[in-house]
From TrEMBL:
Superkingdom in the source lineage: Bacteria
Domain HTH LytTR-type: 135-205
Protein known as: Response regulator transcription factor
Xref: SMART domains: LytTR, REC
Organism the protein comes from: Pedobacter kyonggii
GO molecular function: DNA binding; phosphorelay response regulator activity
Modified residues annotated as 4-aspartylphosphate in this record: D57
SUPFAM superfamilies for this protein: CheY-like
InterPro entries: CheY-like_superfamily, LytR-like, LytTR_DNA-bd_dom, Sig_transdc_resp-reg_receiver
Boundaries of every Response regulatory domain copy: 5-118
Native organism taxonomy: Bacteria, Pseudomonadati, Bacteroidota, Sphingobacteriia, Sphingobacteriales
Keywords of the record: Phosphoprotein
């Protein structure tokens, strides 16, 4: 599981306590810094802190949270404004805030909003360019470089997916639907609710399954069969008399 660092800037202690409790409800989040003095925060947050999410109040003494966030934008990845005054939302999103939570912030609202933010803006487990694929594995969160042409198939397995090659396997914490979308426009195609297949590895079509490189048998779901047959049709060499 990937972890994300957080910081809080709010001039009210109870607000920091509430946010701290909410943050502790999300295992991926780790609070590393908090400030009640916005000017101390300006001096106390540096790029080396690698802050993923900054929770910042809007209405504070000496400097507004919106102005402070603008000064800190190169030091943090995402900004979430927290305030009792919803009218600040226009100003907040004017500096490209990533979210805006109105106090009092309930636990469920916080968890739903921040999980959505993590999934949308922070989680990027797979990158590909042409035949090159970079993945973050479930084992020690390593980033590996693979080649799409080396992949045989991807299989759903409990809470992760397994990337299978001829000589190695790697597990990833990602859904089949998401990895399917990330690998769109490649030769890796969904052929079953539990399998994504490299079409170039098909060696034999066996009715409702295919045999691929390495003598692996992969089932073909009814709704995906047309995709496989269309691919085979394009590659088919027909017999007949030569002129």
């Amino acid at each position: 599981m990937e972890n994300y660092t957080c910081a809080i800037i709010d001039d009210e202690d109870y607000a920091i306590s509430t946010l701290t409790e909410h943050i502790n409800q999300i295992p991926e989040l780790k609070l590393v810094k908090s400030f009640t003095d916005p000017l101390q925060a300006l001096a106390g947050i540096s790029p080396t802190d690698n802050i993923d999410i900054l929770f910042i109040d809007v209405d504070m003494p000496n400097i507004s949270g919106i102005e402070l966030a603008a000064k800190l934008k190169d030091k943090i990845k995402l900004t979430v404004f927290t305030t009792a005054y919803s009218q600040y939302a226009i100003d907040a999103f004017g500096i490209h805030a990533d979210d805006y939570l109105v106090k009092p912030i309930g636990k469920i609202k916080f968890i739903d909003s921040i999980r959505h933010l993590i999934d949308k803006r922070l989680v990027k487990s797979i990158y590909h360019e042409k035949d090159i694929l970079f993945i973050k594995t479930a084992e020690k969160n390593r980033t590996l470089k693979l080649y799409i042409s080396d992949l045989l198939f991807i299989e759903a397995s409990k809470n992760y997916v397994r990337l299978n090659m001829a000589d190695q396997k790697h597990d990833m914490k990602i859904t089949m639907g998401r990895i399917e979308r990330e690998l769109a426009n490649t030769k890796l195609v969904r052929v079953h609710r539990s399998f994504i297949l490299n079409l170039d590895k098909i060696e034999q079509i066996l009715g409702n399954s295919v045999r691929i490189t390495g003598n692996n048998i992969i089932p073909i779901g009814k709704e995906y069969k047309e995709t496989v047959m269309n691919y085979a049709e394009k590659k088919l060499i027909r017999s007949g008399r030569s002129s």
